[in-house]
């Protein structure tokens, strides 16, 4: 990625973090009307709150210890900015949960990842807890012709979504290559899998009803 591309990505992430903080303060999660939300923050929330609390303690402590007024002001600004940024990072994970609705599954990771998988692209879902090497949020694994992409929280996922056909997902690390499986983290993976299976059954029933209706109309026209 070029320097310009990296800068653009950093700016977009920064804007998303502050927008998330605003949404959280107003209690306005980004969940479509009629969709069910599925959070994924239980593992990371204690870690982030620990950093937030330590940063909040550090700000007045540094101000008290430093004898230079200019240095105290500069570090105060940096400290308050860093504190708000970390709260915004936590907020981004809170206000952008996964969701399941009429259109299918929507996978989120803060404000930076937004992947939509329509019902017709989902072949099967299952609960499967996995540990993923490394600390990246998005990890791509290849085995033969199969390619799985994991959207992790604390280097782990709990739900596997098998795709009906290889699908190109809007994730930078896939580099435009189609994937056959999407893995994601969820606080309650069993509930998410139950909701997805129910949605798949409803979608199949609607498709069958539409085909039956179309066949009946065609038969009526033929007569």
Outline the fold blueprint.
Layout: H1 3-25, E1 36-38, H2 45-65, H3 69-95, E2 98-101, E3 104-109, E4 113-118, E5 122-131, E6 138-143, E7 146-151, E8 156-167, E9 179-184, H4 189-222
Parallel strand pairs: 7-9
Antiparallel strand pairs: 1-2, 2-3, 3-4, 5-8, 6-7, 8-9
Helix pairs in contact: 1-3, 2-3
Transmembrane segments: 73-93
Region (Disordered): 204-223
Protein name: PH domain-containing protein
List the main descriptive attributes of the protein structure presented here.
single chain, 223 residues, alpha+beta, four-stranded antiparallel beta sheet, 26% strand, transmembrane, transmembrane helix
How would you sum up this structure, described in words?
The protein has 223 residues and is α+β, with helices and mostly antiparallel strands. It has a domain at 3-95. It is built from four helices and nine strands; from the N terminus they run αβααββββββββα. The chain has helices spanning 3-25, 45-65, 69-95, 189-222, and strands at 36-38, 98-101, 104-109, 113-118, 122-131, 138-143, 146-151, 156-167, 179-184. The protein has a five-stranded mixed β-sheet, covered by helices on one side. A four-stranded antiparallel β-sheet has the order 1-2-3-4, covered by helices on one side. Strand 2 and strand 3 (104-109) form a beta hairpin. Helix 2 runs antiparallel to helix 3. The longest helix is centred in the C-terminal third of the chain and has 34 residues, at 189-222. The model has no long low-confidence stretch (mean pLDDT 90).
């Amino acid at each position: 990625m070029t320097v310009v591309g990296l800068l653009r990505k950093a700016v977009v992430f920064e804007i998303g973090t502050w927008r998330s903080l605003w949404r959280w303060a107003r209690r306005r999660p980004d969940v479509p009307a009629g969709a069910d939300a599925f959070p994924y923050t239980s593992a990371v929330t204690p870690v982030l709150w620990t950093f937030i609390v330590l940063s909040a303690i550090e700000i007045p402590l540094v101000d008290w210890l430093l004898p230079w007024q200019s240095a105290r002001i500069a570090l105060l600004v940096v400290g308050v900015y860093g504190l708000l940024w970390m709260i915004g990072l936590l907020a981004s994970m809170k206000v952008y949960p996964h969701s399941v609705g009429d259109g299918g599954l929507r996978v989120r990771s803060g404000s930076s990842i937004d992947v939509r998988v329509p019902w017709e692209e989902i072949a099967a879902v299952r609960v499967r807890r996995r540990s993923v090497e490394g600390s990246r949020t998005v990890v791509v694994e290849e085995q033969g012709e199969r390619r799985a992409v994991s959207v992790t929280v604390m280097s782990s996922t709990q739900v596997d979504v098998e795709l009906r056909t290889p699908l190109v997902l809007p994730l930078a690390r896939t580099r435009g290559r189609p994937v056959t499986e999407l893995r994601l983290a969820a606080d309650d993976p069993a509930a998410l899998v139950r909701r997805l299976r129910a949605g798949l059954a409803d979608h199949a029933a609607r498709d069958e009803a539409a085909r039956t209706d179309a066949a009946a109309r065609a038969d009526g026209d033929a007569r």
